[in-house]
């Protein structure tokens, strides 16, 4: 079982939260809070879902794609989710840089992965026990991508051997996490 925080998916959560904060009528803000108005594409929610699914699929194929997408395809996020203008490009560049600084600090990727370290051992044990009780032998390694917050704009589906899980679920819904993972593991009949 591989558990790691995906920079590409966490960046999408970061962008999602800025969008939600900007369009939220209540003062229930999510990280990060940006006080300036960002020019998002008018079809943001639809395009966000498409991009989320595309990025998730690529990461599912190979976990290294997360880093490649974030660092080598930086404009992918801008071109799909923002209004094309010099002002929104400047806002996006600032947002991208702020995320990159946070992500590479101890408060970013390191903290996300460390926050569930102890819980991940318990998850592994519960998963192994549950699979053993069902007489299941997985065909390949399970890959879990951690995100720092919930994805509210896309209904995240667990697929065979790949799951995106918010940190919160390891503390609030930990029994559901094991149940959902086991339900989507294809057993080896050999």
Structural description of this entry:
With 190 residues, the chain is mainly alpha-helical. It has one domain (2-183). 59% of the residues lie in helices and 7% in strands. The protein contains nine helices and three strands; from the N terminus they run E-H-H-H-H-H-H-H-E-E-H-H. It has a three-stranded parallel sheet with strand order 1-2-3. The two termini are 20 Å apart. The relative contact order is 0.18.
Low-confidence stretches: none
Number of domains in the coordinates? 1
Tell me, rounded to a whole number, the average pLDDT. 92
List the strand order in the largest sheet: 1-2-3
Distance between the termini: 20 Å
| SSE succession | EHHHHHHHEEHH
Biggest sheet statistics: 3 strands, parallel
Q: What's the β-strand tally?
A: 3
Radius of gyration: 18 Å
Identify the overall geometry: elongated
Give the structural class.
mainly alpha
Strand percentage, roughly?
5-15%
Helix content estimate: 55-70%
What's the tally of helices?
A: 9
